[in-house]
User: Which sequence fits this backbone?
């Protein structure tokens, strides 16, 4: 099993979830996070300029069988792509096991 985690622009989260629904890995987990940006972002507010070092991002996590990992990653990448800096990244983690809290049994990811 693999845990696939994508850190993407919040404006692309809907597209990524729609792409995941088409390839069928099951329900993704979505979180709103902040990520430290390299150059920061500058805002003009009431005549003063402010620099913010953190940018809002969305984190989408999916747990999938090994065989479907490449299809899921490609669907996420295509849906999140804008071609501009800050599109994000996708990280794939190996998972040894998953346990259902309610029943105590092993989770099936199909």
Assistant:
């Amino acid at each position: 099993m693999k845990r696939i985690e994508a850190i993407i622009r919040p404006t692309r989260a809907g597209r990524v979830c729609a792409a995941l629904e088409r390839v069928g890995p099951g329900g993704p987990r979505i979180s709103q996070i902040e990520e430290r940006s390299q150059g920061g972002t500058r805002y003009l507010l009431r005549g003063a300029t402010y620099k913010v070092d953190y940018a809002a991002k969305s984190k989408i996590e999916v747990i999938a069988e090994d065989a479907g990992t490449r299809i899921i990653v490609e669907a996420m990448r295509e849906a999140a792509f804008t071609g501009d800096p800050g599109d994000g990244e996708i990280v794939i983690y190996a998972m040894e096991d998953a346990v259902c809290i309610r029943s105590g049994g092993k989770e099936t990811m199909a």
Remarks:
- The CA atoms of residues 23 and 72 lie 7 Å apart.
- The chain has a mean pLDDT of 88.
- Strands lie at 2-8, 29-45, 48-64, 88-94.
- The chain has one domain: 2-94.
